[in-house]
Amino acid sequence: MENFMYWSIMALWVFVLLQFIVIFMLTKLVAQFLNKLQMKEANDIKRELQAGDMAPSLTYNSGNGETSEFPRKENTPALALFTADGCPYCKKVLAELTGMRERYPWMRIVVFTTVDEKEPDIHPGDRIEFIHSTEAFTLYEIKGVPAAMVIDAQGVIAIKAAIANYKHLQKLLDEYFTGERSGNNSVMHQKTLDMNV
After folding, report:
1. What is the Cα–Cα distance from 55 to 155, expressed in whole angstroms?
2. Is the pLDDT score of 179 beyond 60?
3. What is the DSSP string of 145-189?
4. Could you give the C-alpha distances from 183 to 157, 177, 188, in angstroms and in order?
5. What is the pLDDT of residues 75-131, one digit of tens each?
6. What is the pLDDT of residue 45?
7. How far apart are alpha carbons 192 and 197 in whole angstroms?
8. E strands along the chain, which residues?
9. 3-class DSSP assignment, residue 98
10. If DSSP codes are grouped into helix, strand and coil, which group holds residue 70?
């Protein structure tokens, strides 16, 4: 009888030990599965559009019944300025935008707005385009206004930034076109300048 009790207790301990091993192995497998799932979810999250990416193509109604494309494939850099109705900072930037046209006459300037707001007093000769498109804000992932995006002659986003005022915008463009930000950009900017002089 004592012998039976001894073997019963031993069997019970072996059973408990086996259960601990199985639980430990299952916990390890679940942890590995959750880690893989978390890594997959992190990889699946869409990376935000940023400098260095190709600019997505936007097709819009040019106003004369024809469709146009932004950016155009015309080997010239473009400045996209994103504004909103009722934004006081946007109005101040727009009021001085003709200065940017004079400073960089070869650059295409496009102002994206979400609604048909009253446009500032900019003469047609200034060649500043206004495009009313909520799709542009979504496509270029603009989260606040005023915001600026510079797209180089090859269609690559060179600058994507929220701007505080016109001077901030001018500083960004001056740094970009003079190549002060990096030596590699200087060569590319010089080529762009030479092509359009």
Report:
1. 6
2. yes
3. SSEEEEE-TTSBEEEEEE-SSHHHHHHHHHHHHHT-S-HHHHHHH
4. 18, 12, 9
5. 789 999 999 988 899 999 998 988 888 889 889 999 998 875 444 444 445 578 888
6. 58
7. 9
8. 58-61, 67-70, 78-82, 108-113, 128-132, 147-151, 157-162
9. helix
10. strand
Residues pairing with 111 in the sheet: 81, 130
The pLDDT of residue 193 is above 70: no
Q: How far apart are CA 96 and CA 162, in angstroms?
A: 17
pTM of the model: 0.64
One-letter amino acid for residue 75 of the chain: N
Q: Measured between alpha carbons, how far is 55 from 164 in angstroms, rounded to an integer?
A: 23
Tokens coding 173? 């463009």
In angstroms, rounded to a whole number, what is the distance separating the alpha carbons of residues 181 and 173?
11
Measure Cα distances from 29 to 32, 34, 35, 43, 186 in Å.
Answer: 5, 9, 10, 21, 53
Q: How wide is the angle at C-alpha 144 spanned by C-alphas 163 and 97, nearest 5°?
A: 40
Residues contacting 54, CB < 8 A, separation 6+: 155, 156, 157
Going by C-beta distance under 8 Å and a sequence separation of 6 or more, which residues neighbour residue 154? none
Determine the Cα–Cα distance for residues 151 and 15; give it in Å rounded to an integer.
Answer: 69
